[in-house]
Write the structure tokens for this entry.
Amino acid sequence: MARFKWVGLALLLLMGWSFVGDSAAETGLRIQIVGSTTVLPVVSHAAQQFMASSNTRILVNAGGSGVGIFSAAQGRADIGMASREISSNEKKRFKNSDLKTHSVGLDAVACMVSSEIYQSGVRLLTRAQIAKIYMGKITNWKEVGGPDKKIVVIDKEHHRGTRHVFMRYVFGNATQRTPGTILVTGSNNEEQTKIAQSDSAIGMLSFAWINEDVRAVIIQDQNGKFAPTLKAVQSGRYPIMRELSLITRGEPKGKIKAFIDFVKGPEGQKSVVENGYIPVGVETSKP
Amino acid sequence: MKLSYKKNFSNCFSGQAHLEPLAWIFALMNLIFVTGAMGLGVFLLVQSLPIMKAEGLDFWLGENWWVGETYGALSMIVGSLMVTALAVTLALPIALSAALYTSEYLSPSLRRGVKGVMELLAGVPGIIYGLLGISFLAVTVKESFNLLYGNTLFTAGCLLAIMILPTVLTLAEDALHAVPIEYREVAEGLGLSKLQTALRVVVPQASSGIVGAILLGIGKAMGETIAVLMVVGSLDRIPGWNLFVSGQTIPSKLGREAAEALGSGLHWSALMGLGLTLFFMVSILTYSGTRFTEWSRR
């Protein structure tokens, strides 16, 4: 019986200890960052450098722009990452949160296709064609100059920043419903994998996710043709652009401000460039 | 069931038990468990009340889930049922026959080996199976069935079958192995062959344990989130009778949208409604399974 008492005592101690452990961690300097998977590589790279020269712990988590904005507004995270503007709906919902946006870079979204489609000759899609593909009115690549293959239309979860920006360009409506969709993906990495695994997919991703299996096409609209190159982006002519931003509840103070300044500073901006985005302060005619 | 619980409880107070401090701790733990289990149900119910008020029966019968406008869960319910049914159909024959062979034919040392591997596999987290699914199974399904894409309900069902196989196998084997050796000795003494003994004597004796194992497997398949989310395609639509298209299950929908919807009124409530629906689906299944074994034993 005595043995059981010891076991019981040990269990109770263990439970008590776990509470204590939690509250001790709370007093340490810790910054929690959550949100857009587009901004994530920049911020996590900057966070590593920042932690090397400071005793602050920074935790960076994915989730999407919607989650980033929501978490910052609710105080669930110290900083939210977003790859789109705060929508009017969110502004209304979080009007008491006094959200502040800190721009840390610029990004362009490309229309991506599987490499097999790219190689077969589909190098250019018009805005109207992309719209028809997403509405389910064009379902075969041969209708846009490709092989006789059905199109695997890949969409993103509806709160994702990339989707908002892309759909606003294609349809003029960030939350457009797209009945042509076949697969829905979440993070940029997930979408990249699914485009790469298919040989007839179309999707939307930042320039930073272009590789040999996932290729970007030239986009054409009434204003001309836009090649998905960094040069086109820097000239400000590329049509699907967006700001990458960090979002805080109220003006940031102390360590949080120090980190945001770090990302905006030379070292942070270097990781912006390394990840394939455009640093803030570069002159572009259209933000 | 209830009565005996009450009796035990009053024994605890009438006898010497209340003098034993450890008994109080056990009672407290019991209370924590019961409150937690009931709290979960009540929480889901309360949180999903707004969507029930807003949508009524259309929440279960509607096909369209458009955030901010309308919430219909039918495509996820159908998706969950299809994926689970496929997983069980694929896993059961393998799991049950392997369990029978392991229990009745294998030597003790080999049996321990098989059991060890199965228990190890049963403990592997869903995300690992998900990675296997996305990198291997999805591609295999796409190529072997000559499909456009590999993220289908069929892929999810196969992955779930692989996931529940070790659980069902090891639990069913436990049930078979727990049948006392005397039953087998008597049966073989009466002249039954080893196979006849296994099928006519051991299996009926172990039936309730086997049904329990199957139910646990079904519950696990129905509730699996991350592995399914990675391969199912996540498109809200009713797939008809076609398994080779993308779809959505209740847990995968919850996994995709929960973080975004947290605290956002009706959307959150709708997700809680989905949770409640899943809760009921598993409860009904477990209940009818238990009833079935009681009925079949009579």
